[in-house]
Amino acid sequence: MTTSTAVSRGAEQGTPDRQNTLAGTGMLVRFMLRRDRIRIPVWMAVIVLLTLSVNGSWEETYGTAGELREIAQTLDSPAMIAMAGVNYAGVEATTYGALMGQQMFWSTLIAVGIMSILLLVRHTRAEEEANRAELVRANVVGRHAYLTAALTVVGIANLGIGLLMAVGLGAMGVPTIDWPGSWLYGAGHVVVGMAFAAVAAVTVQITEYSRGAAGMAFGVLGAAYALRAMGDVGENVLNWFSPLGWAQETRVYVEDRWWPLLFVVVAVVLAGVAYHLSTRRDVGSGLRASRAGTPVASRALVTPIGFAMRLHRGLMIGFGVAVALLGLAYGSVLGSAEQLVEDLDAYQDMLEGMAGSAIEAFGATILTIMALIASIYVVLAMQRPRGEETSGRAEPVLSTAASRTRWLGSHVAVAIGGSVVMLLAIAVAFGAAGAASVGEGELFGRLATGALAYVPALWLTIGVAVALLGWLPRAVVLTWVIPVYGIIVIYLGGLFQFPDWLNNLSPFGHVPQMPSDDFRLTPLLILTAVAAVLIALGLYGFRQRDLDVK
Amino acid sequence: MTTAIDVTGLVKTFGQTRALNGLNLHVETGEVHGFLGPNGAGKSTTIRVLLGLLRSDSGRAVVLDGDPWTDAVALHKRLAYVPGDVELWPNLTGGEAIDLLGRLRGGLNEARREELIERFALDPSKKGRTYSKGNRQKVAIISALASDVELLILDEPTAGLDPLMETVFQDFIRQAKAEGRTVLLSSHILAQVEKLCDKISIIRQGEVVQSGTLTEMRHLTRTTVEVETAEPASGLEELPGIHDLEAQNGRLRFAVDGEHLDGVVRQLTRFGIRALTSHPPTLEELMLRHYGDELQSNGSGRHAASRGKAGETT
């Protein structure tokens, strides 16, 4: 199993033995498009339709100039700038286009980033991991065909999104959402999508596990998001180190600058690195040969809880480091919120002393966002027992004296502990960096408590996952609804003034928003109790049902 | 004699599919019991019901005097299981997986673990992802055999093992039998079952269609003989124990019951044997007896019957 290609057409015909490293690319592209004939259109439809429907609602929701200015003012806060971006037109001169660039652009940019990473990993490393690539590569398929075909397919998906978006937005004819801006809006998505496809092209060379490759690429996406936020809130150059920053710095529909998209050259360089790295490894392996491990198990491993811990270790450490870094990043710009408030048009008329509450509101929103990110960890962790079951690895374990309750309970216990670890990491990192950047030591306690107040909400998320595992195992993936819904509510809720009950549907809506709100224990106790009931129900259901075997 | 496994009238359905259709299975304590049947006949489903991983719709299953569903944990301390398709954890070494499964079962015999690792030539320090199919099977086999348990439930355990390792496996199963353990061995390999098993049950479409000792199922152990003689051989059809006689270009092909082999060979020597090959019935041939009607009805029965190859019985 080396990287040497199958006999190329050229060699077959007796021509010089230069290998055609791209042989078979066209066929692979068609094959990948065939495999994704549902997946890619769904991604495209969701991203484009979301954009067009928001675009269609501007005039209805904010019909008058006054209403428009009012919402622009509300959104012109440090928290919104950190979360979404800058309104480059300014509050007074705000337009629908400017709001599109501030409020909508970032979210679909991240969506195309996620799509590009998932698609690229799916067609490269995941195929190698499943040993299918070996089967295909044994035919007339060149060394670089797989990567080239995958990049082409991701490119087609991104181009499709960019084109549909540009045409749709331009054709809708909403005032200030004009054709030139719409072309730029679409092009921004293509550039960001391809940048993260290139990142993933590199990470799939490094590790032999598709999950690890996707994780690394998502780490880069998270860093890109944090850098963009730090740059915008701190009013410095950090956002230029982020592909998201390049797109948002086009100041679409306001100044329509094309030149920031020239940074796409970074993506080209990354792709080149990926091609180079791919020649330095064997099919199926990573850049480093896998090392030998210990021939005997440690005492800690051979209990259900120790074993679950081992399976979750990588995710817990990786995610913990990621949220800690994000906490440090957000915390370090907390102090800038004060300066930013003074710069923002919206606050210019306000009295001195409002800066303090602006910092608190900023802190509270950031904590909610980070808690929602921590809930992604919980969802991922709770997919593990299901993955063990469907892969057939749970079967031999459950044929030992480990009971089903202990087996699933161990995964639950690790996720319960892991959720505390995530929030502790956020509490310490965001609290310390935030208190330091504001210069108020006592802020640490309030920020840290605010972070830990989300523990019961994460436990409830675990509860939902366990209940599904017990009774509707195939629906475990629906646990994703919780973080996704939470993000939609806090984000679009602010933009379109959702009623309270929509917010209350999310467990995160019941957590006191510290440090701007006061600490309240009752909702946390209720959340914990609901979580406990759901977990108990799930464990009971899991004991009653057939194991899903391969 | 006491009973290790007693199953009566077991039914298990998956949606529209009736995987087990009133299955009966009886395994005595201390015996090695062969469980034969083609893919999809219900062997693995039966085993998973015996392990309490699946719950039967109706019927009664008793394993080591316990109910496999309600007493799962207590029973699992006394048995070990090897699945037919072992999946390992990519980031755990083979040695760790052996210890994990063994200790979760209640403990491993360390000395036996070392002996098994050496005899099966397994490198226990490699990560799960890097093992081949055969080596993954070894991990599960070693873990099961190193456990001091009363009952071994083995579901096509040697799929993917090379012939050398197959021999090692057979040695250890004989040893387990000598120690008085009970073995339920599901297999495709009739030679393996023949060498190891005291009793055999043949399963078809979720039912056991035949069960008994090898002697009782004597007609299942017919040897297929192909012989080329100097003069055309005659009179064979009148000999006892001869079946399916065919003559082709001076070559004869027939099946003969083991006890009559001697008489048949005596008869053949009179015509001057030039070449003689013989092989025990393959699973394919055996199965044809129970499945032949299905194959016949779609016209492929004869074809399949004439393809019994010695290679399958290694």
TrEMBL record, chain A:
Entry's transmembrane regions: 40-58, 104-124, 145-171, 183-206, 213-231, 258-278, 315-337, 357-380, 412-439, 451-472, 477-499, 519-542
Keyword Metal-binding: no
Keyword terms: Membrane, Transmembrane, Transmembrane helix
Domain of life: Bacteria
Protein name per the record: ABC transporter permease
Automatic annotation (TrEMBL), chain B:
A GO biological process held by the record: response to antibiotic
GO cellular-component term (any): plasma membrane
Subcellular localization: Cell membrane
Name this protein carries in UniProt: ABC transporter ATP-binding protein
Pfam families: ABC_tran, DrrA1-3_C
SUPFAM superfamilies: P-loop containing nucleoside triphosphate hydrolases (SSF52540)
Chain segments carrying region Disordered: 294-314
Domain ABC transporter: 5-230
Family of the protein in this entry: Belongs to the ABC transporter superfamily.
InterPro entries documented for this protein: AAA+_ATPase, ABC_transporter-like_ATP-bd, ABC_transporter-like_CS, ABC_transporter_ATP-binding, DrrA1/2-like_C, P-loop_NTPase
Membrane spanning residue stretches: none
Main location, first listed in the record: membrane
UniProt GO MF annotations: ATP binding; ATP hydrolysis activity
Keywords: Antibiotic resistance, ATP-binding, Nucleotide-binding, Transport
Membrane topology note: Peripheral membrane protein
